[in-house]
Structures are given as C-alpha cells and as structure tokens.
Amino acid sequence: MAPRKPTTPAKNRKGAPAKRTRENDATVSEGRAKRQKTSATTGPLIQAQAAIPVPPPATLPPSARQRPNSAFRVLNPRPPARPLNVYVLGANSGGELGLGPSVKSGNVGRPRLNPYLSGSAGVVQVSLGAMHGVALTLDNRILTWGVNDHGALGRDTSWEGDLVDADGNHSDSDSDDEGELNPKESTPTVVDLSAVPPDTVFTQVAAADNATFALTSTGRVYGWGTFRSEDGKLTFSPTVQVQSRPALILGVKDVCKICCGSNHVMALTVDGFVYTWGRGTDGQLGRRFSSRIVDWKKEGLTPRKVASLKHILDIGSGSSHSFAIERTGLVYGWGFNNAGQIGVVDDAGSQESAYNFALTVAVPSLVKSLVGFPRIKQITGGNFHTIAVTEDGSCLTWGRLYSFATGLKIDTLPPQFVVLDSRGKPSFLRVPTTVQGLSPAFVAAASEHSLAVTTDNTISTWGLNLTKQIGQKEEEVELATPISHPSIAHTQMVWAGAGAQYSMLAEYDSTHLSPEA
C-alpha cells in the first residue's frame, strides 16, 4: 500500500459526510465540513456505530462455554426488557432521523422525541450507520430507516407516490426544513425477514456505512447491504454485490457480540476469538493478504478468525480501525492509523519519535500507551479518533485534533505527544489522554463528533456541529459540554449513538414496561 501523509483524510471513513449517492464519500478537509444541499447526505458509525450496551461476553455462564457445539443452544440472552424513548438531532437529509415524511429534510437542532422509536414501539436496542439506523424491538422485530441506496434497510423502499409536503406542524425554530423525503425510507419499518427461520430470536443489531447485521440467540449472524471499496465498487460477499434482504453469514458461529466500522465487521465468539470480514485495504481486518491470491479484496469478504487473538472479552471499532480487549485487560489495536487513532507508537514520550507511527497497523498490536490506565471497559472511535472508558469512570481520547473531536483543550496538551501539520498546527494526539471533568458511563463517536452519557445520566457532546449533530450553539465545540435544552431537562439518558452528521439519545420508557422487566 502506498504511504499516506498523516494528516490527509482517507475516503469513506466512518460517519463521513457525502452526497447520497455515496459516489464521492470523503471526510471533512481539515475537519471543516461544508454544508451541502442535496437530496441526502451520506456517510459511518458510528458506530457508527455504537448500540445499547449488550451483556458483555465476560458475564456468560461458564456452563455455556463448555457445552458441545450446537446450532440450537442459546448463547445470547435477549436485551433487557425495558423499552426506550429515543431522541434525535442533527442532519435529516436522507431520513436518517427516522421522523417520517412529515418532517422535511434538513437539520434538527435540539433533541426531539421520535414517536416511531419510543413508547409502545418497544425498542430495546439501537445502532447507527452513516445515514441509516436499525433498532431491535421487544417483540423480536428489526426496524430500519434512512438511506437505502445499497440495501442497508433490508427491505423494499421503492415509492412512486406524490411527495408529501410538510404541513408545518413539525417545523419549529430548531429545524432547517429543506425538502421532501421518501416515506418508506424516513419511517422506521420492519425488515423483510421472510428468508429467516420463523423461530429465530435476535439479540443485537449493528450498522455499518451501507450494511446492517443482526445477531441471534444461537450465535449466528445475518446481514444485508454492501461494503464499498476505495474505488467505489460494491461487494457484500465473494458472489454478491448488494444483498437486499437478510442472509445468513457463513463461516462464523457461536458469536456473542458484533460491531461495525464503516466497511468492516467484527464478531466476538463465546470462546474468546475474533472474526472479521469486509473491506480490509486499511488493515482493519487484522490479517495479512497474500499477493498470490488473485482477488485478495474479495478474500476479505469471508469471515476469518484473527489468528493472533485469543481470550478476548470485548471488541470495538472506529471507521477503519479495530480494537480487542483481552481477559487480562490488555488492549490490542489494528487498522488505519494515519492520525494515531490506534494509539500504537514507538518510544512514547520521546520528542525524536514524534513521527514514529505506522499509517497502517496490519495485525493486532498491543496498545502500550493504554498500559498503566485502569482497565478499559468500552472502546470505540470515529474516522480518525478514539474514545475509551475506564472502569473507574475516566474518559480517554486520542487521534485527530481537527474539529475538536477529542474533547481536549489542545493548547494544554504535552507537545511531545502532539504531531503538527505542514503549517505547524496541531494535527493529532498520539497517546490516550484523560478528558478532565468528564465521567462517562457510555460513549459514542462518528466522523468528527462525540457524545458521552455521564454517570449522572446527562449527555455531554463535543466536536463538529455544522448540522447541529451535537445539540450545541457553536459550529465547533472544543470541550465536552452538557446539552442543555428543555426537551431533555427531566430525562435520565442511558445511551447515545452517532451517525455521519446526526446523533441519537435514549432513556428508559417507564410507561411501557414489559412484564419481564
């Protein structure tokens, strides 16, 4: 792979804003996006991608790990039977907020309760992709919404009806209405599960840029949509370009957790192994490809075990970088590292080693810069930055400094850990650094913005805010800042998620509790 300059953004990173056709996916130059009026914007996750926390693999009973292999044994418990109220904010140019067709495309500047994803909807888990979302419900339905250009919604959204004009009921001072939306895309709707066995029980969902995946109670994974290569080619599997309906992913089983980057998937098994598949051109799959393979790019589309990893308890990912937490607490990282987002450095602390980092870390490498911090309990990332939460409630961030994605006061950072760009400006932070004054229980990140659910159930946000995705007044926010708005004044938030240019928050709904709760 040709070497890349550390500060040059790569195409199609997690949560990167772009036109709806996704033909020109690109990250924000110098971290400053220009607002474009299009039929839809595209982009992770965000992470994309983060979902309502699922029971960590470490809590699985030992007996479950010792049972003989069986396709029918229950490995994964269902999510907590506590429905959520989901609030949305940010860009809605592709219906990614799931507010339906009566709310035009544009920006929602304050957290707004989504009636399709709250109360009686019975939503118990959510995951966000670049411009689409997926939710799992209490009654085992999977809902999707947003842009469906390449099958990410797993259902037919073709529509020939008249465009619906907004009647003004939802057009308030906190919205920038621009255009009409396809009601079949903008409204959360059940995925077509006709090809899935009727007794299948789903326990987790996860969204990538253009694909969606669902985990079952028996440890199998279903997926639909596609992965996009750097040259724009679409491939879902070695034989399928776009998978329009859910299909069983072959080659991986006994899975207890899944997570997605922009164009790759990670699966953790109950016996502590990690499988990856998708696009691997930036090392995000954690495996080397032989030049003797005729089409090594397609080889990455088949799930394979990451050979060097074992005894893994948790996984996390950014756009094109990946992490695994080993049972001793050690963290391994691999993938794209052009802004130091993996945290793998040589001789950390030496002024002379400021540029001693690999643009791509092809195989899992110990993140030595995390050694000495309390044990990591969650790790995730955006395009070029990473966020981790420690067991003692501290928040660590590192990576790209443009657009304030790390939430750190840049002019106070130790200069020996900061890499400067060609103009002498701070470009990225090479080592994990504590975000002062922030005690998160859960964090989320997308391209250039981040969110944290604090231990007192409030929401703090920072980073780029051009589409009002962090709910603040300024276009960029350097430090973690609580969202202050009457719409969430009396809420107790338990989750946050980030897409390309939008965000979602969730609290438990006390009015529609399941009998199991």
TrEMBL record:
InterPro entries from the UniProt entry: Ran_GTPase-activating, RCC1-like_dom, RCC1/BLIP-II, Reg_chr_condens
Repeat in keyword set: yes
Domain of life of the organism encoding this protein: Eukaryota
Descriptive protein name: RCC1-like domain-containing protein
Keywords, comma-separated and alphabetical: Guanine-nucleotide releasing factor, Repeat
Pfam families per record: WD40_RLD
Alphabetical list of Gene3D superfamilies matching this protein: Regulator of chromosome condensation 1/beta-lactamase-inhibitor protein II
Organism: Chaetomidium leptoderma
Chain positions of RCC repeats: 84-139, 140-218, 219-271, 272-328, 329-392
One GO cellular component, as annotated: cytoplasm
PANTHER family on file: REGULATOR OF CHROMOSOME CONDENSATION (PTHR45982)
Listed GO MF terms: guanyl-nucleotide exchange factor activity
PROSITE patterns xref list: RCC1_1, RCC1_2, RCC1_3
Domain RCC1-like: 86-505
Segments of this protein annotated with the region Disordered: 1-47, 158-190
